[in-house]
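Why should sequence recovery work at all? Because a backbone constrains its sequence more than one might expect. Tight turns favour small or flexible residues, buried strands favour hydrophobic ones, and helices have their own preferences. The token representation captures these environments compactly. In the example below, the structure is given first.
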């Protein structure tokens, strides 16, 4: 299997793992939900987990891959404020945790570009 053939499946796996984590351990995600969002943090955590699972399924299937990958790129942009909140909230944590929280910020760009690339390559699928 060529690298370009594996890329959508790897992205789908990442999304599925993240979605499952949101549903299995919601408390750790509740803390990074921006307070400016309406409703309960737990609702946002569960909703984002469900969205990640739906996106994973869409990216895994060739028929829906392009649309799901574009939605994934938008989703990665949309969750950026939660990563910013985490980096701000963790500024007083031990250095390894603080570094991990800050390191997540620039990681969003490659994730967005990866999803866009999967969408672009999905256009070439029969």
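From this structural description, the recovered sequence reads:
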């Amino acid at each position: 299997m060529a690298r370009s053939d594996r890329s959508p499946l790897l992205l789908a796996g990442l999304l599925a793992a993240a979605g499952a984590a949101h549903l299995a351990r919601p408390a750790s995600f509740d803390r990074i939900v921006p307070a400016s969002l309406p409703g309960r943090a737990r609702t946002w955590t569960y909703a984002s987990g469900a969205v990640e699972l739906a996106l994973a399924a869409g990216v895994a299937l060739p028929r829906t891959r392009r649309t799901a990958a574009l939605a994934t790129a938008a989703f990665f942009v949309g969750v950026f404020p939660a990563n910013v909140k985490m980096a701000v909230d963790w500024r007083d944590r031990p250095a390894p945790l603080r570094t991990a929280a800050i390191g997540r910020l620039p990681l969003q760009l490659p994730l967005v570009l990866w999803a866009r690339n999967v969408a672009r390559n999905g256009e070439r699928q029969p």
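A few observations help interpret the result. The CA atoms of residues 74 and 112 lie 7 Å apart.
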